[in-house]
Structure formats: structure tokens, C-alpha cells
Design brief:
The protein is α/β, with parallel strands linked by helices. It folds into two domains: 2-71, no CATH class; 90-316, Rossmann fold (3-Layer(aba) Sandwich), CATH 3.40.50.150. The protein is 46% helix and 16% strand. The strands form two sheets. It has a seven-stranded mixed sheet, with helices on both faces. It has a two-stranded antiparallel sheet with strand order 1-2.
Length: 318
């Protein structure tokens, strides 16, 4: 055999059945017989050793994946479209999905948005033009990204981060334990039925919330109820690009990448394919503006990013 210009004879051991031997013709990976090692032709045996290690990694990966599939098979598999098209069933589906992705939620949002997620959230916070003494509610806070940003801006005020999923609140509280942020707290709450009195907050924010609720109009009514007159509401979410070709490309990008990410990370394509499917049912930034204007936010508007793929809806309560 010739390799990089060197000539070496490959030795074979017909009687050896150990698949770990370093001899390319021997299947004994653990063989300790020095005669099985071609010291003069070590360069020629290197590709064989690499291939053996690669095959071991593949076998281990397949074994681990099989165990993970068994674990997943014990979880109920819900029909994506059947559940998210029903107001009665959507919240149950969303809760189950976010419980599954909660541990890796922060990393996924960064990767999936190409690192732009935190920039959009900072833009939302800057739009509030805070004085520093306001009381703010951050809905669907997840692991607390926006909540922490807000708390830094209101040292003499307070921020409440709420999420319907206790798993997310637990992660947010673990992050809070490592911060000196006494003006921030987290609690479990349903956006459709908030446990706060009328006119409780100066500002209300949310990231990726309205698209996930079972009833957008009902959620906006509840937000209007707990917001003080003159207070502002800001909502960051996926948007509907006005250009139909661009919108088609965008939706299908989300379908493909979401499916791949769901399979690789969770063994279930529907986990992240939920995003484009829910976006198809979401009113989008223009219709959300119309709903807000009808419900008591007369000067409602929105700002867009990336040609409309993301948007922040905003409004002042009359």
C-alpha cells in the first residue's frame, strides 16, 4: 500500500477476530500483540485507526439515540395542527412544548435568530423611555431576558416577570439568585387571566407571547385591564412580511430549520415547526395594531425588523 509517497506492507492476522486491533486487516481493537502493529508503516495504519474510532462513535451515538427515543415514546405525541387551531387545546400544546424546550431555550433563541434576539429585546426596552421608578409587568417572560433588562432601567421601581410555565419560572429564579436585583421578582401567571388588580402597572411588555395565546383579542383585553391609563404596552414577536414572495421564503425557512432543529435536539420535528405553523394563524403586526386600536390603544403602531420578519407592536392605554 502507498500512502503519502511511503510504501508499507499491511500485515494481516487471519486468526484474529478482535475488531479493535490497530492492524488495518485485523478486527481486534484491544489487541496488545506488538506484532499486530506495523511500526514501520504507522502512517498507513492511521486512517484505519481513525475509521475504527469513528465507527465506535457512530455506534455509541446510535445507542444513545435509541435510549432517547424510548424516553420520548413514553411522552404523549400531540397532533400539531389539530391542537394549535383550537382555542380550547392550544394552551395545553404550548405548555407541553415549552416544558420540553425550557432547558435549552436561551441557547436556541440565540442560534435561531443568528444572535439578533437580544438586540430586538434591547430595542423594545429602549422604546419605553423609562424614568427609573415605574412598575412594570413582563408577560411570558420565559427565562427572564427582558425582565432583567427592565430591572436595570428602573432601580427605583419594580419589575414582575410572569410566565404560565413553572419550568421557565424556575430557570428565571435560578438566574436571579446570581444577580443583585432586589427590584425583580418572578411568578407563575396566565396571560388570559392575570392575578393583578385593574390599573396595576405603568408598562407591560412581552416577548413571543401574543402568537402563543389561544385568543389574541382576549389577551389584549386582559393586558388593557391591568395597565394604568397612559401606560404603554410593547410586544415583540414574529411578523408577517408584506412582500408575499419574501413571506413564502421566510415561512418555509422556518419550517425546514425548525424541523431539523426539532429532530436533532428533541427527536420531534414538531417541537420547533410549531413556530411557522403558529405564525400562519397569528394575525401579524398589522392586524394586531387594528385590534389594539379597537380595544383602547388609539395610537397603536409597530416597528419592523428584517423586512417584517420580526416586529414590535406598541400602544398607549387611553
Amino acid at each position: 500500500m502507498r500512502w503519502y509517497g511511503r510504501e508499507s506492507e499491511t500485515r494481516s492476522n487471519p486468526g484474529c477476530s478482535n475488531i479493535s486491533c490497530s492492524n488495518i486487516s485485523c478486527s481486534n481493537i484491544g489487541c496488545s500483540n506488538i506484532g499486530c502493529v506495523d511500526l514501520d508503516g504507522i502512517v498507513t495504519d492511521l486512517p484505519a485507526r481513525v475509521m475504527q474510532i469513528f465507527l465506535l462513535i457512530v455506534r455509541l451515538t446510535l445507542a444513545l439515540f435509541s435510549l432517547y427515543q424510548v424516553k420520548l415514546s413514553r411522552m404523549p405525541k400531540l397532533n400539531l395542527k389539530e391542537y394549535i387551531t383550537s382555542k380550547q387545546n392550544k394552551q395545553f400544546y404550548v405548555n407541553q412544548m415549552f416544558a420540553k424546550i425550557a432547558p435549552g431555550y436561551d441557547a436556541f433563541t440565540v442560534v435561531f435568530s443568528f444572535g439578533m434576539d437580544r438586540g430586538w429585546k434591547r430595542r423594545l426596552v429602549s422604546m419605553l423611555k423609562l424614568r427609573g421608578d415605574e412598575r412594570i409587568l413582563d408577560l411570558a417572560c420565559g427565562t427572564g431576558d427582558i425582565s432583567f433588562m427592565l430591572a436595570e432601567k428602573v432601580p427605583n421601581g419594580s419589575v414582575v416577570g410572569s410566565d404560565i410555565l413553572q419550568d421557565m419560572i424556575d430557570i428565571a429564579n435560578r438566574k436571579l439568585s446570581g444577580h443583585n436585583t432586589p427590584n425583580l421578582s418572578f411568578r407563575q401567571a396566565d396571560i388570559m387571566s392575570l392575578p393583578f388588580p385593574d390599573a396595576s402597572f405603568d408598562h407591560i411588555t412581552c416577548g413571543y407571547a401574543l402568537r402563543n395565546v389561544p385568543d389574541v383579542e382576549g389577551a389584549l383585553r386582559e393586558i388593557h385591564r391591568v395597565l394604568k391609563p397612559g401606560g404603554s404596552f410593547h410586544s415583540l414577536d414574529f411578523g408577517h412580511p408584506p412582500n408575499p414572495v419574501y413571506r413564502w421564503l421566510y415561512i418555509n425557512y422556518l419550517v425546514v430549520t425548525g424541523s431539523i432543529a426539532g429532530i436533532l435536539l428533541h427527536g420531534d420535528a414538531d417541537v420547533y415547526r410549531y413556530i411557522p405553523e403558529s405564525l400562519k394563524l397569528y394575525p401579524g403586526q398589522r392586524q394586531v395594531r387594528e385590534i389594539m386600536q379597537r380595544l383602547g390603544f388609539p395610537n397603536a403602531g409597530f416597528v419592523e425588523f428584517g423586512g417584517g420578519i420580526m416586529a414590535i407592536n406598541y400602544g398607549i392605554r387611553a
